[in-house]
Amino acid sequence: MLSMYDISIPPLKRTLTNLSQLLKKGEAYAAAKEADPAVLIEARLFIDMYPLKRQVQIATDMSKGAAARLAGVDIPVYEDNETTFEALQARIEKTIVFLDSVDPKQFEGSESKSITITIRKVDIQFIGIDYLQKWVLPNVYFHVTTAYNIMRHQGVILGKSDFLGPRK
Q1: Is the separation of the CB atoms in 126 and 135 below 8 Å?
Q2: CA 111, 112, 115, 119 torsion: positive or negative?
Q3: What is the pLDDT of residues 21-65, one digit of tens each?
Q4: Which residues fall within 8 angstroms of residue 125, CB to CB, at 6 or more apart?
């Protein structure tokens, strides 16, 4: 039977690693077009949606928040001040390093752990398994997919295999 660690940390790390590769392609595309990388970093699909940089920030926030809450450790605080591809890559890397720092044993029993998050001043209650499966993973996949779509919309050549990453 898979543990909470198994169904959280490896998929989050894989998704963030794939996001890193997507951003590398975005950066290369901007360089090849001799375009200001900030144009891509600030790009959004629609005016009322977050730009690329915020999609990366949210995907990493959701990932580190999940690992911390489920493992019972403090959530690392990031400043949300990334404005370059290099800074976005550093944010992804430090998130993966944090995910690697949690011990699988810290996740034992977290499937039934009570978790409360506050969104727009509203408390939302979960048990651990529902928090992971119905909140964290869908949100991470949504924001990484949106990052993919923003870059695709701007002309970056990406395919489904870029989103899914290598088969391992």
Answers
A1: yes
A2: positive
A3: 999 999 999 999 999 999 999 999 999 999 999 999 999 999 999
A4: 114, 115, 116
Q: What is the mean pLDDT of the segment spanning 1-24?
A: 97
27-47: b or e for each residue (b if 16 or more CB lie within 10 Å)?
A: bebbeeeeeebeebbebbbee
pLDDT given at position 98: 98
Q: Tell me which DSSP letter residue 73 carries.
A: -
Instruction: Provide the H-helix boundaries in 33-136.
Output: 37-41, 52-71, 85-101, 128-130
- For residue 168, pLDDT over 90 is answered with no
Residues 84 and 27: their CA atoms lie apart, in Å, by 9
∠ CA 71-167-108, rounded to 5°: 15
Q: Which amino acid is at 124?
A: I
Per-residue pLDDT at 160 exceeds 80: yes
